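Entry:
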Amino acid sequence: MKNFKTGNQLFFTLIFFSFFVTSCEWFKPARDSDKEKVYTEEDMGELQGTKIFDPETGEWRTVREVNGETDTIKWTDLSEKDYPPIISDGSWSGTDNTNTGNETTGGSYDVSMILPFLANQSSIGEITENSYWAIHFYAGAKLAYDDLVKDGANLKITVSDSDGTTGKVNRLLFEKSAKDAELIIGPYKRNNVRLAESFSKRNQIPLVVPFTAQLGMANGNPNYIQMNPSLESHCRAITRHARAVHDTKNIVLIAQDRPEEKARFAYFQGENERINGSIIGSRFREFIVGRGDENQIEIDIAPYITQGETSVFLVPSWSDESFVYSLLRVLMIEHAKGEDIVVYGMPMWMDFDQIDYEFYQKLNVHVSSASFIDKGDERVRQFKNKFYQEYGAIPKEEAYLGYDAMLYFGKMLNQHGPSFPQSIDRQPFDVLHGRFEFERVVKEPEKHKEDLNYFDQLENTFVHILQFQDFQFQPAR
């Protein structure tokens, strides 16, 4: 039997209202002025708008994007007859059981999804903003489930509300739906992920973590699957992109005189060494920016400008907008002198609101990003239309992530059974938000030497490089 169970009536009421409420407030991108926000058990954080992942903090951030003048949008009430809400009779049943010929193991598999719907924080007719991430992720996942059924997959998927708390996640992991699962997707927060990781390792159940991007959450757990690329993967991707176009001698690493920022240099230097080999002079130059009297940033960039050639600066600074602004302002002075400059930054830069777009344009600013939805992609257009027809709403980025996760891992489970984590590093897959390229992560090489099959976890290492062009960030040429 193919079904999609849930265990909470208020949860379905929550989903119903999330797609049929007509207030424009639901669709306004909200901005979080607290750049260093840390989520609490009661506050799941700012989750509206177009999002990018911050691999350092494990938070979503709103992407800054400009597409010309803003039009006035009029919202229309949708008929429940034409757009029926998601309701539950205890199961989701597939309507098309035709197998298209794909190789499958022929088994039936249980999947447990643990997401923060926060139904405990919502009331009838009013949904907490922090529920949107899970609601859209769930809705996208259900569309993928429908596609899997048409492809002959035999899955039973149980969906649970974590309430965003460790206590609730602990209880859910003791329930039959988790103990009997061949795959768990979720949860969201790092403390809850740690609980699920321990459960996954102890019971040898594959765990797909769709949000947390921090390496080190797992140790010797080959069933731990991290969808979001880590900070190291972002730095490596930037290095590869920069080196594909520019020589090492023209590239400079810049960071503030802070231990956490200077430590990131090792990621760039390591990847560059891998590209160059042990060639003398293959290291990037490094520029540590200090502060003078009254804590003023002091940037003497002149010694690092390669006159008459392109000067490239890699800046692994995440959330210190004042520093990035000061650096770009100094570089703009050099640009005005006729120097050609390229700057690579971090995902958070897309959310900065103090820096003029002219800086980004003239300094050829590039950033790394875990996700990019290509609106010109036919698959994306089809998904968007299908989502709207099904729910009467425009999909948020979380919906694409939910669809990608369910479709890919559903296929892997159906083809390889519960041992699929041993195979996914050999099966890259294009998805709506980018691509899955999983690699085995080994934190202690000595253990791997003793056992060539040993690894600590799996990580999706694919990272987009976006360039600011035509007043928005888009894939770099």
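Residues 20-51, 62-78, 85-104 have pLDDT under 50 and may be disordered.
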